[in-house]
Amino acid sequence: MYELKTKETENSVIEFIEAIDSVKKREDAYKLVDIFAETTNYSPKMWGPSIIGFGAYHYKYATGHEGDAPLVGFSPRKAKISLYFAPGEQKREELLKHFGKHTTGKACVYINKVADIDIDVLKELITSSVKFLRETYPE
């Protein structure tokens, strides 16, 4: 049976952030923790070794695959900061037009630094993602 790699852990978010080499990336990580926590009303938790997640939901696909994941989160990686929002959320593409400098992957939005983005749009992305997942996967 498939074992999920990204699970909520008891590891310290602060210790994880303090271990980041780049001072600027550390500062951005703390800013993002504040923004995500304030917007979601959830405390930050480590998911796997490098994702800081907020809230959680349980999903189950038609294939039978199921698991738990953070509602939203981010990971301050070496090259870029990965932001995790709900894939499939309809407002995302429209909001990203006003977000600032970024690139996208299937489920991730990548930024170089917090100064490159519009914080109000980030808060809207967080809020709409949480709302979408709560409606799609009610507890």
List keywords for this structure.
139 residues, alpha+beta, single chain, 22% strand, two-stranded antiparallel ribbon, 8 strands, six-stranded antiparallel beta sheet
What is the secondary structure topology, with strand pairs?
Layout: H1 13-18, H2 23-40, E1 44-47, E2 51-54, E3 57-60, E4 66-69, E5 72-76, E6 81-84, H3 92-96, E7 103-104, E8 108-111, H4 119-136
Antiparallel strand pairs: 1-2, 2-5, 3-4, 5-6, 6-8, 7-8
Termini gap: 24 Å
Q: How many β strands by DSSP?
A: 8
> What is the count of helical runs?
4
What Rg, in angstroms, do the CA atoms define? Answer: 15 Å
SSE sequence, one letter per element: HHEEEEEEHEEH
The largest sheet is: 6 strands, antiparallel
Strand order of the largest sheet: 1-2-5-6-8-7
Q: How would you classify the helix and strand content by structural class?
A: alpha+beta
> How much of the polypeptide forms β-strand, as a percent range?
15-25%
| Fraction of residues in H or I helices | 25-40%
* Uncertain residue segments: none
Indicate the overall shape: globular
Mean pLDDT: 92
Q: How would you explain this protein's 3D organization?
A:
This protein is α+β, with helices and mostly antiparallel strands and 139 residues long. It is 34% helix and 22% strand. It has 4 helices and 8 strands; from the N terminus they run ααββββββαββα. It has helices at 13-18, 23-40, 92-96, 119-136, and strands at residues 44-47, 51-54, 57-60, 66-69, 72-76, 81-84, 103-104, 108-111. It is globular, with a radius of gyration of 15 Å. 25% of the residues are buried. The model has no long low-confidence stretch (mean pLDDT 92).
